[in-house]
Design brief:
Blueprint (H helix, E strand, L loop, with lengths): L33 H10 L7 E5 L3 H4 L8 H4 L9 E4 L1 H7 L8 E4 L1 E2 L11 E2 L3 H6 L4 E6 L6 H18 L3 E5 L9 H13 L4 E4 L6 H7 L4 E4 L6 H13 L4 E4 L1 H4 L4 H14 L3 H11 L2
Parallel strand pairs: 1-2, 1-10, 2-3, 3-6, 6-7, 7-8, 8-9, 9-10
Antiparallel strand pairs: 4-5
The structure holds ribose-5-phosphate.
The site of ribose-5-phosphate has 13 residues, from strand 10 and helix 10.
Length: 291
Amino acid sequence: MADSDTIVDAERFSPDVPARPQAYDLKGSGALDWGMQSRLARIFRPPANRTVMLAIDHGYFQGPTNGLERVDLSIVPLLKYADALMATRGIVRTTIPAASRTPVVLRASGGPSILRELSDEQIAVSMEDAARINASAVAVQVFIGGEFESRSVHNMTRLVDESQRYGIPVLAVTAVGRDLTRDARYLRLATRICAELGAHVVKTYYCAEDFDTVAAACPVPLVMAGGKKLPELEALTMAYRAIEEGAAGVDMGRNIFQSDDPVAMINAVSAVVHESLKPRAAYDQFLRHAV
Ligand code: R5P
């Protein structure tokens, strides 16, 4: 029962103090619903709104990739250093501790293996299941220029429609396939199509020339994909340049979990992304901490 004899008159109204605006300043996200913004804010660390996403979803088409043979042994110890984890629902449910504080970006498209045409994907997870698993976003592959281009775009737009109902953002992954180039002209085309059709975040590869135009032309945050394993200094240099040229973060897999010291590497990447540490200094940090 209410304890009415201890109620005191409310008086802290501060009528002379204007209400503080609570605008969300992640690129292109200011008009989204609160739930969508809240999930994005879990992934993109305020106030700079940058992220180090750890991608471990490779098994959905590659099977047990080098470094992901035992996710419990190789990845779980890295979770606390990542701002987000990109993974499949199979790995999340079987292997990721429910007590992990790292937000999940859930792989939501799939179908073909590396033995078949990769662009032949379907939606592989319902938004309802993404909500059930407490995903902070879902990820869908978009194959601009690929054999099944239209269907992969349609996969994304269907997820975007569902995302509006559930308040779960969609990350579109621009997949370059085996034969497509990764120059700025192509990446501008692919990333812009994804954003125009409703993706809340776009993942793309880095290109050495004019990546800044790719980022500038994309009205939502871009995260840089890592790609194949590079020497650590090269990977850190690529991440540094992508951030300097407009990316809001990275979504790296092999360059972290295939490193000789994945903990030292993810911390070096994090220093580049969150502290703008120069590549050489980040590499020196990696060498100091590597065991
Ligand atoms: C591939 O399609 C997946 O989305 C991977 O998550 C992505 O390629 C990132 O991993 P990596 O940095 O190893 O290329």
